Amino acid sequence: MKLYEYEGKQLFQKYGIPVPPGIVASTVEEAVAAAEKLGTPVVLKAQVLVGGRGKAGGIVKADALNEVREKASKLLGSEIRGVPVHKLLVEKAVTIEKELYLSITMDRVSARPIILASAMGGVDIEEIAREHPEAIVRRPVDPLLGLKGYEARIIAYKLGIPKEHLSTFAKLLQGLYRLFTDYDAELAEINPLAITDQGLLALDSKVIVDDNSLYRHSDLLTGESRAERGEMTEYEEKAAELGLAYVELDGNIGIIGNGAGLTMATMDMVSYYGGKPADFLDLGGAASHERVYKATKFLMEHPRVDVLFINIFGGITRCDEVAKGIVEAVKEVGAKKPMVVKLVGTNEEIGWKILEEVGIKVFKDMEAAAQLAVKLASEKRGVSRDGHTG
Amino acid sequence: MKLYEYEGKQLFQKYGIPVPPGIVASTVEEAVAAAEKLGTPVVLKAQVLVGGRGKAGGIVKADALNEVREKASKLLGSEIRGVPVHKLLVEKAVTIEKELYLSITMDRVSARPIILASAMGGVDIEEIAREHPEAIVRRPVDPLLGLKGYEARIIAYKLGIPKEHLSTFAKLLQGLYRLFTDYDAELAEINPLAITDQGLLALDSKVIVDDNSLYRHSDLLTGESRAERGEMTEYEEKAAELGLAYVELDGNIGIIGNGAGLTMATMDMVSYYGGKPADFLDLGGAASHERVYKATKFLMEHPRVDVLFINIFGGITRCDEVAKGIVEAVKEVGAKKPMVVKLVGTNEEIGWKILEEVGIKVFKDMEAAAQLAVKLASEKRGVSRDGHTG
Amino acid sequence: MVILVDENTKVIVQGITGRQGSFHTKLMLEYGTKIVAGVTPGKGGIDVHGVPVYNTVEEAVAEHPDANTSIIFVPARFAADAVYEAVDAGLKLVVVITEHIPVHDTMRFVNYARIKGARVVGPNGPGVISPGKSKVGIMPGNAFRPGKIGIVSRSGTLTYEISSALSRAGYGQSTAVGVGGDPIVGTNPIEVVKMFEKDEDTDLIVLIGEIGGDIEERVAAMVAKGEITKPMVGYIVGRTAPPGKRMGHAGAIISMGTGRAEDKVRALEEAGVPVAETPSQLVSLVKKMLEGR
Amino acid sequence: MVILVDENTKVIVQGITGRQGSFHTKLMLEYGTKIVAGVTPGKGGIDVHGVPVYNTVEEAVAEHPDANTSIIFVPARFAADAVYEAVDAGLKLVVVITEHIPVHDTMRFVNYARIKGARVVGPNGPGVISPGKSKVGIMPGNAFRPGKIGIVSRSGTLTYEISSALSRAGYGQSTAVGVGGDPIVGTNPIEVVKMFEKDEDTDLIVLIGEIGGDIEERVAAMVAKGEITKPMVGYIVGRTAPPGKRMGHAGAIISMGTGRAEDKVRALEEAGVPVAETPSQLVSLVKKMLEGR
């Protein structure tokens, strides 16, 4: 789960990481009141969970209250990269002397948390990594021991933090590390971490919490849905409620696979043969017929899906269960959309029989099946276009 | 710092360790009100930091409110083993099916926390250890990892905890372990941990917090002094304020040494030659003349001290500094009490000269010095007795 | 020789009385895996498919001192504790099937196991199979057959699909390792590839990768440096996955500028490792490399 | 051979710019100890008594790769961090002088050092001296002289008193180790006694114990079992200490039925280790044991 900037900054404060004085506002009046309380100039920051918010006009400075009113009116209700702005963070403006980059994430190779830091902040870490890889300090941390004070100091020395900010920096980094572990973060990022006229300040926050750990972080659950937060599409949220691992894409071939790897392979193959996947939908292991039924129905009812391509390798999953689920869905929804099924493995012959009885053609080879799905989809688009023009 | 039972139980609740419903009362009226709120029968428990409170009459059951009034009146203001009772813990009485023992302390050999548990609770662990050593389960814990759930379960199985209490016990023990580490405890003990009609309950608490860690546990500091809590004598508290490591004893030979080992050796030697030490007072390392002055003056003014025996090995501590401090004290207080000084080591000759100038005899051999101190003390007692009888 | 598991592997199943644990115990026994004991707290004394169940791993190991491996089916919230229990009991290989384990838990138990000299495989993976010798996992045994191909994969089903295609084409497997779909796993493909390089029963390595992280790039770098000399064929899925989205596996995500399939494919190809675009291509590439030798 | 420190000991002083650190650096240098660097965060670049100072141990070790030992004088709140820094930088002996370190901190860093193969001596102790070779501690050098007596002690000053009495009587010391007065120490007397048993430069062991814990009883048990064969003389202080009271040292306390001096004396005597009642008796016992051989 991604946290909004203001949520991340609330955690920052809890862990002793200094942030500029700020107030969250949901209306123009609240924004003006906040600015009045903080004192102008202020910065208005759209609270949306998309990258490149600054470049898209989501962060603006306002020098006086009437400017706050005017700019807050513009921002609230507008869209930043397609995401509606419901909240602003109104922050007291500070004078920036220098911008640093600081984050903690997970290093897959060492299986440890890793601190990434750079004296070149304010831009994406990807950009620093690409253009000045030598400017990034990387230090893995022993997750059993945590970040020791001396390690934080070593990073401060490597970044060339001025003496007067050294101990603040070390404490701040230790706070960030504790936040990272206490909140099961996948990423805890401060960019920029700025040296300002008010001392060291975290000017932005980016915190992503491991979804698998949310059961132990009930304080983060605001009641707002993932769709409302802009983290999922409406269909993704619906699929999540059905317990399906689903990612919406912009093509028209609905994809169902069992296993994430096989499902991605299916998407890739459709694309390889010139088609466009409408989604990633992984049934997971040992899928029951109910699960297959739900998934099939879900995609058959999805407006963007023109053709369904179901690709199953029956290992622990039984092909007869899969076939039963497909048939249940088809019977309920009707076979409005063409369907291509590849089904091999455990109990494959029973499965084939079940499907053939309702007239669904079954493949044993996923490549042949992919080719057919692509062909059907392009025909369907043709028909559909004809329909519109006719 | 030792915590009162009710303080320990407050921590228990914070860590999910179930305790009987209870209310602290400082007056008889409060005790009656508490009993009314809890519902009788209740148990009244004197909040004093001494062992054997139960046997000394500090824990009584009251079946009705008039009995609460009567017994609370008796307890409040009385003394339990010499310690005045200022507070009672009024607890709802429970029916005990079985009493267990559970504690976490530090194991000096493995340098790890160690869990001690026994199915024979309700008596001192010393007694169990002496009479049924085989009935104690001991399990050291890796302090870097903490107590894992499976370890708590293993202990539960070894104690023969009934199935219905297994998971409560494991959670309770993990809570106790977290309390032990979070609060830097030297000891966290539940005795008895009882299986009752209300489930598993911690019926008593004994928590000792490492004094060296108190700077990070400001929530434990109540403003009550250590003397008021009955943890120190008045003189011990005074010495602590002066920064002296001092323990009051019941003899009449005042002892000052530098280094805990040497000071204990001095006490032992005095006793070996038939004398009785009035205290343990360790100047610590590299003692300055101010420190020596303070310590000397403190003991010269102590009513129970008849003779002063100062035993110094000057290593890093300089003998001239020690001599200077002694002379300052003697000059201020006057040489009312005989003084025996053993002083060897760095700058010893300067030290001897300083002391001899004011007429203080100096020894190089601690045994000869100890013998003299004992002799002087017995004479003094003689004089003092004469004085009384004369 | 094969890697990780073989005929000397003696398994304890943690969470043996659960639905999954019990079902796969049966399948592993049928495959011929030597399962010596099961563990479920509070269920000690019963047996599951003839396997005796204990309350604790400590007890199971005391009764079955030849046990050397654990496979874990316990729910995510209790899985970390189960790993500690296995490692502390002295088991040297711990295969974690459980998915949805918080990744910070995984980081800690993986590092703990390392200190104690134990190896974790998984979590969120199908386990390990050395066909004909031992299966410590949930893969369908009939998709594999003994041979000389070492497979390391971040995916489950895709691996079965590919190994069964390889098997049909006459290319059996020495060992197939599903490292698991989480971002942090106990044994990553780099380590598995190194094991295959040393394994005399492995002639060719199949690396099945996916988006997320840069482990495949690092394998490519090892090949480029000559640290891996055995022939290798790659297959990377997720070419069509959008950045910032998790594709089923928690670890399958393009983020912070790393993890793109195209970068992995390029790195491997530049190191001389041919990369297939489809499973059937992969089989052809294996054929070509082995016959070309 | 001696134990723990000798002429190859190359020391880094952590907290070198503090009052104590600076003072004892001077005394150690005067004694002949090889001090290669000092560390105080933020003070890198200066020197103390000719010893170069660095901001971090990592840096100091990079510049002085022969460093193998650290002595720590930093305040209690920062001492644990200093130990981690020394251990992580690869130093294999860490002598902690600092007192008042929270004992949970000590438990953690002692266990961490063990995992990393480093040894901690202390905290709250005088350190280690191998007379004539190296002094890594705060003991007065002139109380010691080279010889064949190994001293292990929980006390500082009492050790100086006894070693100077032994020295005067002609009995020099191989090594004297002050293990520290805290309940938990990095190296306990059991371990030191074992080292002396193996050390060819040590002929006789003097064990100076005090109330608290049961380490002395465990040493006695080792002697009784024949695991320690060298002659040993004991001295236990605190016979007159009341139970439940800390006698200066955090570790010197009789509690929960253990730690009484009388139990320690009895255990040693039953194991055949004579126990002195005064320092002069101790010297006589040493004399008797060595001449009796």
Q: Can you offer a commentary on this structure?
A:
- Chain A is an alpha+beta fold.
- Chain A folds into three domains: 21-92, 2-Layer Sandwich (Dna Ligase, domain 1); 96-218, D-amino Acid Aminotransferase, Chain A, domain 1, CATH 3.30.470.20; 234-377, Rossmann fold (3-Layer(aba) Sandwich), CATH 3.40.50.261.
- Helix content of chain A is 38%, strand content 25%.
- Chain A has twelve helices and 18 strands.
- In chain A, helix 2 (28-38) runs antiparallel to helix 3, helix 5 (149-159) packs across helix 6 and helix 8 crosses helix 12.
- The longest helix of chain A has 24 residues, at 366-389.
- Chain C has 293 residues and is of the alpha/beta class.
- Chain C has two domains: 10-121, NAD(P)-binding Rossmann-like Domain (Rossmann fold, 3-Layer(aba) Sandwich), CATH 3.40.50; 139-291, Rossmann fold.
- In chain C, 35% of the residues lie in helices and 22% in strands.
- Chain C has helices at 19-31, 57-63, 76-88, 103-115, 157-168, 189-198, 215-224, 261-270, 279-292; strands at residues 10-14, 34-39, 47-48, 51-54, 69-72, 93-96, 119-121, 127-130, 134-137, 146-153, 173-178, 204-210, 232-237, 275-276.
- In chain C, the strands form two sheets. Chain C has a seven-stranded mixed β-sheet, sandwiched between helices. In chain C, strands 9-8-11-10-12-13-14 form a seven-stranded mixed β-sheet, with helices on both faces.
- In chain C, helix 7 (215-224) runs parallel beside helix 8 (261-270).
- The longest helix of chain C is centred in the C-terminal third of the chain and has 14 residues, at 279-292.
- Chain C is globular.
- Chain C starts with 9 loop residues before the first strand and ends with a helix.
- At the B-D interface, helix 4 and helix 8 of B face helix 4 and helix 5 of D.
